[in-house]
Amino acid sequence: MTDTKQETERKYDAPSADDTTWLPDLTGVGDIVSVVDRGTKDLDAVYYDTDDLRLAGASAALRRRTGGTDAGWHLKLPLAGDSREEVQAPLSDTLPDALRDLALSRTRGADVRPVVRIRSRRRLWQLVGSGNAVLAELSVDAVRAESLLVTSTTASWTELEVELAADTDPALLDVLDKTLRKSGVSRAHSPSKLARALGETTVGAPRLRGGRVAGTVVPGSAGEAVLGYVEERIRTLVSLDPAVRRDVPDSVHKMRVACRRLRSVLRSYRSVLDRRATDPVREELKWLGNELGAERDQEVLRKRLGSRIDALPVELVFGPVAARLQVWDLNNSSEAHQRTLDALNSPRYLALLDSLAALTEQPPLRRKATREPENVMAKAVLKEYDRLAGRVSYALELSPGPERDIALHEARKAAKKTRYATESARDALGKPAKRLGKRVKAVQKVLGDHQDSVVARDALRKLTLAAHAADEPSFVWGLLYGHEQAEAARLERELPTAWADATRRDPHRTLS
């Protein structure tokens, strides 16, 4: 069993833990009405990581802590700005499987072991607002860190930490920051106790995930531009893994999109990255996207069909329609989520993560990677655009029916590839790439809505057969099928106009 919370905090270097006369009076700062002394407590934490410090390199931390009110196992994962997500599990002698799984995308299956022990004597104050609401906690820690990798290596320091309560406006951190700085307290150079402990007690600080081998990329080159985009997408994929495992809403969709973006950029920029190395990675990303797709498609269908039924007049809803939809969704959702978990726990997924790490640490650069990015990236974008144009033209020549549905779906995939190519090229090509991406996205939306209708019709056909087999009225399912047919026909009529708008400005002129 695990609990999750978000913590938002800032750390500062403090001159002393025993004598805190240097600490300014914070009463009246922002919405703080009073400052309540909560005494002193001792905390003892052992941090776990792989031998090559993969968690620390990904700005994550795994610890077993005793003392204080939240003794137990804690996995800390980075979020934006001053925030982190902390997943807690009860205190036990061994690492809980749930936390091991949530750390898997960062450890890549490597064993973890104790690397640092950090003991802190903490003096704690609560910053209280009106109505006795606790706005934040301020602590001054006397810290002693001991490396468990290098014998007899220790470090000690004093730090101040301000952590906001769950519902406190983050702006309070800036107000407190201004007051603390005026009193001579400076921000800590290390983002966490663990980072400082590793830096001061361990030979060689951890290399941040995605850090490249020195000298492999020419600054300002096409290689640097493409790899920057690839690294960001890999970080996104890795960071979404724990959310997908916990079934956080929309996390599967975001992870699937990260797979698609990665596959697309590796395809589009084969002139920069050697396809002998990237094509196998693209195939594995395709596999992962397909495994995630079952759950994502079910999410979309559930929402689409539910809203369609809710919009029907009551007098047209015959039979146990809501119950039939609920049973169908429960059966399919459970199976789809298990398929996702099986994929994320498979050796194949761990091998993919290793391949992605190798791709960024030792990128397989080709000769054109050293060139300036403008020409290289414009050529790649235009190649994807031309492929899209061919597929749209082919689809529009076909008569309505299954063959045209397939052709429109292929055009949709080409539109995504074109848009993702423009995304990675925005820094190099500027507004023309951004405008093209926006126009292509409008075409992609028409094609995407059409494909959603195709998938919905297939699901409605199956629901109709299930209702018929159970001697239930199938009128509603047939009615919804007709609605989807009409929607698809409308979108097919809309596509020529959308495509004409997208091609009004010739990309071969604007990007050249």
Describe this structure in words.
It is a single chain. The chain has 512 residues and is α+β, with helices and mostly antiparallel strands. The chain is 54% helix and 18% strand. The chain contains 15 helices and 9 strands. Strands 1-5-4-3-2-6-7-8 form an 8-stranded antiparallel beta barrel. α8 runs antiparallel to α9 and α8 crosses α13. The longest helix is centred in the C-terminal third of the chain and has 39 residues.
Task: Explain the layout of strands and helices.
Blueprint: E1 3-13, E2 34-49, H1 54-57, E3 61-66, E4 72-78, E5 83-89, H2 97-102, H3 104-107, E6 113-128, E7 134-147, E8 154-164, H4 171-182, E9 186-187, H5 193-201, H6 222-245, H7 251-268, H8 275-310, H9 321-344, H10 347-361, H11 373-397, H12 402-429, H13 431-469, H14 475-502, H15 507-510
Antiparallel strand pairs: 1-5, 1-8, 1-9, 2-3, 2-6, 3-4, 4-5, 6-7, 7-8
Helix pairs in contact: 6-7, 6-10, 7-8, 7-12, 8-9, 8-10, 8-13, 11-12, 12-13, 13-14
